[in-house]
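STRUCTURE REQUEST FORM
Protein name: Lipoprotein
Source organism: Asanoa iriomotensis
Requested output: structure tokens
Priority: standard
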Amino acid sequence: MLGVRIRALFGRSRAIVLIELAILAVLAAGVAVAIWWPDGDPKTATNAAAPESLDLPGLPDSTAPVLMPGRPGEPAKTAQANEVSPIPRQPHNDADVRFVTMMIPHHEQALVMAKLVADHGENPKLKLIADRILAAQEPEIKTMETWLADRGLNRNSGGGHQHPMSGMQSAEALNRLTAAGGAEFDRMFVDMMTAHHQGAIDMADEVLGLGADVIVNEMASDVVVEQQAEINRMREALATK
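Status: completed
Returned output:
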């Protein structure tokens, strides 16, 4: 009788163990489903792969080759960006400073005359030329002021190196131009602006021969080309009204 009871007890214990194991299996399956279900990507919380680094488009490549212009007659070369040294600032001299500090007020007077054309002139071609003068010389003044500021200078830094600015018009001449109108104004404007532009060309020629700064050299070269072209356009406009 005792043996029967012991076997029954063991039988009940084995059944309970099997039931408990079945319950644990169901619970484990439920956890697995919970982990797999949200995005369909089989991963566990502890073994989830770390996100890969982002590859953002449009970022500069520090290893991209840089084109290095060769000397006259020589081909251009390429070099890695991290192998290229910054270009040192070009030296300047008194001629450069004199040109820039004199050209700023020279341009400012050209703007004064050009602004009169809209209300006093009658030649539509001259009005277009005046608009071009305003559009070109206002930014050029800013560029020259920046050049001075970058070197710790200002428009008064020319000092004793300055000389009378060629082509500058007197206050009396400006008053006569302001009082004129119509065809008379157009003729006066072309005469005065032609002399004014020619003075700027003379100053540019001087710094091209004596200056040292590459940026000033470029500005002076632009003055020679642009203002000679405007002289020609003003004369043609007046002749072909």
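Reviewer notes: DSSP finds six helices and two strands in the chain. Residues 98 and 158 are 5 Å apart (CA to CA).
Form closed.
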